[in-house]
Write a structure and sequence with these properties.
The chain has 166 residues and is an alpha/beta fold. It has one domain: Rossmann fold, CATH 3.40.50. It is 22% helix and 22% strand. An 8-stranded mixed sheet has the order 2-1-8-7-6-5-4-3. Strand 1 and strand 2 form a beta hairpin.
Amino acid sequence: MPKLSKNGELLNDSWQALAKDATPALSELSNGEWLVHIKWYLENQAALTGMTNVSVWLDSDDEAASVAELTSKLPVIGVNFPVFTDGRGFSIGRALRERYQFAGELRAIGSFMQDQLFYLKRCGFDAFVVADGAPVESMAKSLRDFSDFYQAAVDQPLPLFRRRAL
């Protein structure tokens, strides 16, 4: 079973992400917790009404706006990082939190690096799917690499100069 780092703790990940091109039968989704690609979810949205065990994931080339109407209904949204050099997922995460007010679990999936965890957290990510054998203790420390910030972000909406003026 995949592992999930959330709030610095290593947990079993009960949500299983299906491949982008997967076309599961609705009966297959009745047991377990599933992350399906946003395109499939939108095509089958009427049939998924009331299923709280099915949520979505977005690829780096998907638009955050595609889930705008769903953010109050979904418990989890995954954002895939196909390669660690693809930073579009950072923007997707921030848009989901700030523009679309997503308050559920925002998880990073795919190929991100430990050095990026702190910045992913600043963009609103609060869960990270980790590979087997990943240094979880070191990853938890990476979430606290810096103690203060100049810029505003999801986790600190006021820039330093505004906080000093208070």
